[in-house]
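Continuing the batch. This is chain 6 of the set; chains 1 through 5 are on the previous pages. Same settings as before, nothing changed between runs. Recording input and output for traceability.
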Amino acid sequence: MFSYQVRVEIKEDKIIEFVEFLSTIREDFRKEKGCLSLNLYRDIEKENNYGVISEWKSREAMDKHFKRTQFSLLVGAARVLGENYELKIGQIFETGNSQLAREKIRLDPNKSTNAVGHLLKPPTNA
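Output for chain 6:
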């Protein structure tokens, strides 16, 4: 799976316009072949910072999306309504739930300095 993220700091007087714009193009993005999701997130500390994250079945599908008008409109909105923006492109190798998280952060449970390991083990009554 492939994804991209557009992070943008929206001008304070343009936030409503940016959110409304994304609402109008959201379904067009989601209808594209290979699109798995498109989501908008707001930073909880900096209320005018937003992230648009889109996930794709393949790199080919995402590359086709980059050449479409809708993606150009998203970038244009970030440039016009935002102070600055950043585009990140990545590949997701694994997805899972808490079991995958435990597997990835598992450290040596025998080491007493292993704070994460202690969180993963059930408490013992001494």
